[in-house]
Amino acid sequence: MFHIIDSGYAFTHQTGIEINRPGGTSHYVFVFFRSPCEFETADGYISCQDHYILMEPEIKHHYRSSFKPFVNDWIHFEAERPAAIELIRSFGLILNKPVPLDDSKFVVQLIKLLQTNRNLIGTDAFEERPGIQNKADVDSQLAGSGSKSRQDLVDTGIMLTLFESLSAFQTSGHQDRTYHNYYPAFASIRNDLYSLPQTGLRVQDLADRAGLSLSRFQHLYREIFMCTVGEDIAKGRLKRALYLLENSDLPIAVIAQDSGYTNETHMIRHFNKYIGRTPGRYRRELSF
Question: What domains can you pick out in the chain, each with its CATH number?
Answer without folding.
Answer: 2-174 (2.60.120.280), 180-286 (1.10.10.60)
